[in-house]
């Protein structure tokens, strides 16, 4: 049985594209703050923390942990604290590129595969009104970097280089490769 160690509805939807045969068990482990340095290493750490906790409750299953952040201008942007913080993030990224990283950790019996996927996203220039209208939808508050590419903010994007699904929250191509490795 597959166990997704995440409460993210987007990860649930993406995993259901692969299979309907999975369950959810959410990790409650505290997440360390980013202290600078290697963003890929940071998201792998976060994914590993989630997967290890849930695997301790499901040692006979395949557990998937994942965590997504946006890296922009030397900072890691997680979910915004409030609407003002969301506006600050989106305004700063207007007309610029950012990198979306998802750490993924898959644990099965005595095997653990830990990886990170990076996708580059570029925004077109955004007006203050567009940003305010998007924030008013409420969509920005539970998303890393204050935007959901699969929702209303999709119109902000003028280029994606890499795995689109990674930006949504689960790098499906890499996940499928890992699951194939573990089940062979």
Folded structure, characterized:
By secondary structure, this protein is an alpha/beta fold. The protein has a single domain, classed as Alpha-Beta Complex (Maf protein), CATH 3.90.950.10. Helix content is 36%, strand content 27%. It contains six helices and seven strands; from the N terminus they run βαβαββαββαβαα. It has helices at 9-18, 39-57, 83-93, 128-136, 164-168, 172-183, and strands at residues 2-4, 22-24, 62-72, 75-77, 97-108, 111-123, 157-161. Strands 1, 2, 3, 4, 5, 6 and 7 form a seven-stranded mixed sheet that branches. Helix 3 packs antiparallel against helix 4. The radius of gyration is 16 Å and the shape is elongated. The model has no long low-confidence stretch (mean pLDDT 94).
């Amino acid at each position: 049985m597959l166990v997704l160690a995440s409460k993210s509805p987007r990860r649930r939807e993406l995993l259901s594209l692969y299979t309907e045969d999975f369950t959810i068990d959410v990790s409650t482990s505290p997440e360390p703050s980013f202290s600078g340095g290697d963003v890929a290493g940071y998201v792998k750490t976060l994914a590993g923390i989630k997967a290890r906790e849930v695997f301790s409750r499901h040692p006979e299953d395949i557990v998937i942990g994942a965590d997504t952040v946006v890296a922009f201008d030397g900072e890691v942007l997680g979910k915004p604290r409030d609407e003002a913080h969301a506006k600050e993030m989106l305004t700063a990224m207007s007309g610029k590129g950012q990198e979306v990283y998802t750490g993924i950790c898959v644990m099965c019996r005595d095997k653990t595969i830990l990886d990170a996927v990076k996708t580059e996203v570029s925004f077109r220039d955004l007006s203050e009104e567009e940003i305010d209208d998007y924030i008013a939808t409420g969509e920005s508050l539970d998303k890393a970097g204050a935007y959901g590419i699969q929702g209303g903010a999709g119109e902000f994007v003028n280029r994606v280089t890499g795995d689109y699904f990674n930006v949504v929250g689960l790098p499906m191509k890499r996940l499928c490769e890992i699951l194939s490795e573990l089940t062979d």
